[in-house]
Amino acid sequence: MKKKTIFAFVIGSLVIVGGYSLLNADDQELPEKSTATKEAKIRRLLDTMQAGDMSKQVMDRMIETLSGMPNLPAGFVDEFKKTVDPKELVDLTVPIYDKHLTEEEVEGLLKFYSTPVGQKFASVQGDIMQEARAAGERWSRQKAMEVARKLKADQQKENQQDKKQD
Fold this sequence. Notes:
elongated, mainly alpha, about 170 residues
């Protein structure tokens, strides 16, 4: 179960924020603001959000997680690094933004992320996400332990009542 959860996290993280480092590539030219397509605006938004930096952080964490997984075939992590194509991930992510945001909303986000507050948020967003995920994992483990203790206590009470009735 844990392997499936880690694998789902790895794949989900790759799709959500992975691969944005290509947004800063020299060969990518974006049209002027007034004539930009929605897709180009989304790509510019991802760049403005400093998604490339987040992508690097996520990729480093995923590689670290993968490296610690038991029973991986020899050379898996190195081969994984070779096969990850960030451009494919960007191409997968852009339609998700397109689906959930209107062009006007993308423009509004571009304006926000171009402000000092937006840039500050973009610079700490990866850390916030990482810490929130860790806090959520600790909380869910704590709740799971509480439920397990309660169920065990309930089972013990039930067993004692069964013994009294015998």
